[in-house]
Design a protein that fits this description.
318 residues; alpha/beta; Rossmann fold; 2 domains; seven-stranded parallel sheet; 35% helix; binds nicotinamide-adenine-dinucleotide
Length: 318
């Protein structure tokens, strides 16, 4: 009987069909999420029972889902953020987890800079002005030479820092594991959280959503920031308390924010949608042809390696 593989990410194989061809060549039966949205926990519970492997995006791979899977050997994360997978349950049930580190770093770093520049120069509003047959100007702020605070100097944080060099920015950074060699090479300075928040013109988040990082930015932290500060979040929504962010933006305690990620995705009924000083995007920091091609190939490598009892290149060590 053919092994069954569930594939949930909508962009999987979209820019290049090679990942599908590889799976077909190995004789797997492919089941795709056709709903146009990420699965709910219940939808996964209903479908997971017979699956041997799953390539997953942001869908909730909870304990209940994993316990329902009778044949599951591998969960392959199409990306790097593992917060939607219950790793402890996977370990207990003997299910291996692979991921695609490094596949989308540069795309997310590019996107972070796109957001920073777009918010600073009000690109969205300028486009609207011209479309509405107007010709008004909006005065923005420069990014060049400003102070950038990077929270999390892993793969993406470092790529953002490299870009910031070209913009002659002063770079402050915060990480539980500071990389002093990198700091020396790039010329960034590791500081404590408070110093970073108080002194940065732009604050960009590149940390995983762990229990420790949940609501890492709340009312108190927002109060420490400059009233001209601009927040960029391409990591995970839960890192910033969205209620506190709403009040800080509404009351102009900080200048603006650009958010690619939200506590609930999509952010239906979020009050953030009412504000003009927030730029919103639907979790697409990694959505480039380049990253999609790489993630597809790395995902199938991990999945097939586990199913064929070989050593995968990118195993999550649980
Ligand atoms: P990474 O693992 O390479 O880096 C994470 C960094 O955060 C590490 O340096 C780590 O030491 C630091 N860190 C972890 N816990 C911390 C804590 N409690 N306090 C301070 N620092 C802490 O990850 P990455 O590849 O750079 O990705 C960062 C995050 O970006 C991912 O976890 C994911 O949530 C998000 N992401 C978003 C998109 C998107 O489409 N928007 C795409 C890819 C990744």
């Amino acid at each position: 009987m053919k092994k069954k593989i569930l594939i949930t990410p909508r962009s999987f194989g979209k820019t290049n069909d090679v990942p599908f061809k590889i799976l077909e060549k190995h004789g797997y039966e492919i089941i795709r999420n056709q709903t146009g949205e990420k699965y709910s926990e219940q939808q996964l519970i209903d479908i997971i029972e017979e699956m041997d492997g799953i390539i997953v995006g942001l869908d909730p791979i909870s304990r209940k889902v994993l316990e329902k899977a009778k044949n599951l050997k591998v969960v392959t994360k199409y990306g790097v953020g593992l917060d939607n997978i219950d790793l402890r349950a996977a370990k207990r049930l003997g299910i291996q987890v692979t991921f695609t580190p490094g596949a989308n770093d540069e795309s997310v770093a590019d996107f972070t800079f796109s957001l920073m520049l777009s918010v600073s120069r009000h690109i969205k509003q300028l486009d609207e002005i011209v479309r509405n047959d107007c010709w008004g100007k909006i005065i923005g702020t420069e990014v060049y030479g400003k102070t950038l605070g990077i929270i999390g100097t892993g793969a993406i944080g470092k790529d953002v820092a490299r870009r910031a060099r070209g913009f002659n920015m002063e770079i402050l950074a915060y990480d539980i594991y500071p990389d002093e060699n990198f700091a020396k090479k790039i010329g960034l300075k590791y500081v404590d959280k408070k110093t970073l928040l108080k002194n940065s013109d732009f604050i960009s988040f590149h940390v995983p959503l762990t229990d420790e990082m949940y609501h890492f930015i709340d009312e108190e932290e927002l109060k420490m920031m400059k009233d001209s500060a601009i927040i960029i979040n391409t990591s995970r929504g839960g890192i910033i308390n969205e209620d506190s962010l709403y009040y800080a933006l509404r009351d102009k305690k900080i200048a603006a924010a650009a958010l690619d990620v939200f506590e609930n995705e999509p952010p239906i009924n979020s009050r953030l949608l009412e504000l003009d000083n927030v730029l919103l995007s639907p979790h697409c920091g990694a959505s480039t042809i380049d990253a999609t091609n790489r993630m597809g190939l790395m995902a199938v490598e991990g999945l097939i390696s586990i199913l064929e009892e070989k050593e995968p290149k990118y195993l999550v060590k649980i």
